Automatic annotation (TrEMBL):
InterPro entries reported in the protein's UniProt record: AAA+_ATPase, ABC2_TM, ABC_transporter-like_ATP-bd, ABC_transporter-like_CS, ABCA, P-loop_NTPase
Residues of the ABC transporter domain: 615-852
Localisation: Membrane
Keywords on record: ATP-binding, Membrane, Nucleotide-binding, Transmembrane, Transmembrane helix
SUPFAM superfamilies: P-loop containing nucleoside triphosphate hydrolases
Species name: Cardamine amara subsp. amara
Family to which the UniProt record says this protein belongs: Belongs to the ABC transporter superfamily. ABCA family. CPR flippase (TC 3.A.1.211) subfamily.
Topology within the bilayer: Multi-pass membrane protein
Record protein name field: ABC transporter A family member 3
GO molecular function: ATP binding
UniProt keyword annotation of Nucleotide-binding present: yes
Pfam families, sorted: ABC2_membrane_3, ABC_tran, ABCA12_C
Amino acid sequence: MADSSPASFLTRANAILRKNLTYQKRNIWSNVRLIMIPFYLCIVLVCIQALVDSQVNKSVDYQCGCKCIDKIGNGKCEMVCGIEYSTRDQGVFCAIPKPQPWPPLILIPRPQARAFDSSFTDDSCRRKNTCPVTILFTGNNQSLGAIMSRNLLTRSFIMNSSDLLFSLANNVLATTYKGSATNYIDAGIVSDLSIYNIQPRCPTMSNFSFSLGQSPLNFTKEMRCVQGLNLWRNSSIEVNDELFKGYQKGNSNGMVHEIVSGYDLLDTNKTNYNVNIWYNATYKGVSGNKPFKLVRVPRLVNLVSNAYLQYLKGPGTKMLFEFVKEMPKQETRLRLDIASLIGPTFFTWVILLLLPVILTSLVYEKQQRLRIIMKMHGLGDGPYWVISYAYFLAISTLYIICLMIFGSAIGLKFFLLNDFTFQFIFYFLCINLQISIAFLVSSAFSKVETASVAAYLYVFGSGLLGTFLFQFMLEGSSFPRHWIFVMELFPGFSLYRGLYEFSQNAYQGNLNGTNRMKWKDFSDTEMAEVFYIIIVEWFIALIAAYYIDKISSSRKDPLCFLKNLNFFKNSPSSQRPSLGKQISAVSVEMEKIDVIQENEKVEQLMLEPSTSYAIVCDNLKKVYPGRDGNPPKKAVRGLSLAVPSGECFGMLGPNGAGKTSFINMMTGLQKPTSGTGLVHGLDICNDMDKVYTSMGVCPQHDLLWETLTGRDHLLFYGRLKNLKGSDLNQAVEESLKSVNLFHGGVADKPAGKYSGGMKRRLSVAISLIGSPKVVYMDEPSTGLDPASRMNLWTVIKRAKKNSAIILTTHSMEEAEFLCDRLGIFVDGRLQCIGNPKELKGRYGGFYVLTMTTASEHEKDVEMLVQDVSPNAKKIYHIAGTQKFEIPKEEVRISEVFQAVEKAKSNFKVFAWGLVNTTLEDVFIKVAKTGQAFNVFS
């Protein structure tokens, strides 16, 4: 026995979950292919990596060099490998048991970006590239600061070729080139840029060259003098402000003013040494690791320490910082990891490929109106969102797990050199944001094709723009960091940024053998910012998507949530439904007394606190706004109607009369312009979600899932009607049998393979399963053969015992067979209402005589009819065939037969007939009368 109470949240969630699982079972191979996409793409990467390994990584150009040498002089040579036999490029791969010592360098700004003080120089130094490098001092004791600033820089350059490193260490060397990951070769020395010697004043002919290192890792560098300018500031706040404003931002003229470093001497004196050092940490290496930043800092510490020692012990005292060198290393080879190099672009595409799948699935349900038909049968927004979101999340999670497993199994460093939990949490957050965005933007599309094109543009655009625009800005030191943050607000770029950090860590880890990115490094990386952005955008997108979906599906005011506030609440009287109508003073035609009586009945019902009527429409109106200069279209002009349970009410009317607009308002597809409708006491304007739980709908066009069977459809909608267990199975079986879809395996065939008639019968069965209290049927028997149509009529007639049914049809035979009452709707108005016999009696109190003769005897026929009935009216005339309406009260059928037999003796009658008034005649007459009346109303 069916439970008459509405289905609970869990019951409806269970219904859509089972439907989705069944749907995916029918599409299992599509899901398998989707899950296997990461595997195929990872295989592609492996193939590319194998090609790179064979052509690049194993190439002799990228390993320590070898040479064939005749060691014993017998004319035979043997291959000997080592740094002495290598080119400069090959030397970095050789074993280095005794690494080359390099002089310590300071990082200084480029000449065009150096700050200058107008008291000491002017802006012409910018054009000449002669601006000094500025070092700022502050502290509690200015006199001490003056002494230490004088001691900071050497005033003469001494070169001893026999001990070059010692000579260089006595001077303050600097470079504009950032440090590198390792210091086997100092990037500042091997670059094409000059080495600078910072002195208080640059003497004439101060440039010279020096050679450093042994072949093949030997370099000849030009050393240029650059003036160092030490300036005092009154507080650390001034120093910090000047450093901040100078870096890359520029002043009001747009010029960049960068400072080398700053020293805060604090409370330093002869017994206390306490110094804070500012240094430029914004120049990063490729991965942003600490060694890239700090390799230039030790010389800054050494300079201020030496200045303090000289302050205490005199100018001859020094703590010499002679060189920097790496630990010994074994021979290495080039390990170029393609997955890490192209990882940001490639895996951005891989992960974002889920977006078109999710978006097109959502838009498909919207385009095929499957979402609204589910809602009409009682599926609320809550269960739909929870199950749909959980389903997409499960598929996406399985997708990224397969991606990580496949990538790790085939040895991609991108996955192996980054912590697995770190990666999973990042991907998990990304797919949640991606699902939320799909729900959000699905409201903007009505066609699957358009949504698919837009989604793939987003996918490939994010990868390409990330590679050729966003990555360029990430690696460019001149691009403001706050704009990086702004760009990361775009979801595609936040995903790209995270993958970029993974790829750079994996690339450097592959080269240097460093550890993988772990959670303990979270706060020291740029990933923290990316995580926070994704989490915040996820929640914002999810809330916005649900809100927009709720507004669009319920047709509410976008600011409806404000109505919960006191100052937006209406007074109690404004919330009550209309209790009556204001009837204009218009002339009333007597033949519309039935419509007036229906209006009065509705008024009385609206005054009652409760009613047994299933459907009550009170002055329902629908006006579509005018477009392109056309006036507003009045589709429904004040409809009042009351339909009790157990009645089938038929809506008849010509095309465009307003029947579909009326059905759409009653089923929640459109909001009434004015008036109201009650379904078992529930207002369609405010309580539509509750109305849906007791409603069944058979739309004009079949809304079915192509891959689900007829049984699957009925099981799903039966669960929405709170049918369970054996009751559900029995109801499904009876529904299938009633519409002749049970035998021959038809019930278990996909609906996409059904004929048009079979789909129509299934739609009717769906609308009736669970014995809904109210059923709307829009031309239910369209496209059926006579036998199926008669069987379907029997099903509907049996179902109306416990339901109120509103049915639209163009078949007068169907209307007479099924409908207890009929209403003829013309130009938005109800022209008449009553049962079929009443309507035929009221509008069809005449016989219809049809006679066909030769054209010359047409007058004779007219005279014959006038003799029989003086008030007869000719309604049809063409090529000798004439049709007359004869009032029933003026003639008897026997008299008509006698008159026709008498006429046959006078002229030839080809054919004749006498019929009673049909419902079709009534329909045509009322429609024509109503249209003529509305033209002048």
